[in-house]
Amino acid sequence: MPRKTSLQEQFQTGVATKPKIKKPSLYKVIMLNDDFTPMEFVVSLIQSIFDKTQQEATEIMLQIHRSGIGVCGIYTFEVAEMKASQVVDAARRSQHPLRCEIERV
To answer: Distance from the CA of 95 to the CA of which of 24, 37, 56, 84 falls in 20 to 30 A?
Structure first.
């Protein structure tokens, strides 16, 4: 069985290996259509939470309206989870049943 070498030994021999860094998994934030939440409210949320322009937010809202779901953005898990939570919290405060989920890319 080969002997493990210390970092100091690797440095001295010039054989130090670069540690492999794994990229974090990405998640889509998906907004789901309902028949009660006003379109203007959805556009406003997309603009404020996902930092989209009026045009981009309107296009995403129309995708949600037409197909039942729309992707608002792609983020690392923690960011996606936070943004989905912000959407649901804002909707509840305004008494709308809007739903938002995250899905691994």
So the answer is: 56
HSE toward the beta carbon, residue 90, CA cutoff 13 A: 17
**Nearest one of 33, 36, 58 to 46, comparing CA atoms:** 58
Give the count of beta carbons closer than 10 Å to the beta carbon of residue 104: 9
Cα separation, 34 vs 76, whole angstroms: 26
Report yes or no on whether pTM surpasses 0.85. no
CA distance 58 to 43: 6
Q: Is 90 exposed, middle or buried (0-12, 13-18, 19+ CB in 10 A)?
A: middle
- The CA distance from 76 to 68, in Å, is 24
Q: What is the pLDDT of residues 19-62, one digit of tens each?
A: 889 999 999 999 999 999 999 999 999 999 999 999 999 999 99
Distances in whole angstroms, Cα of residue 16 to Cα of each of 20, 23, 102: 12, 22, 39
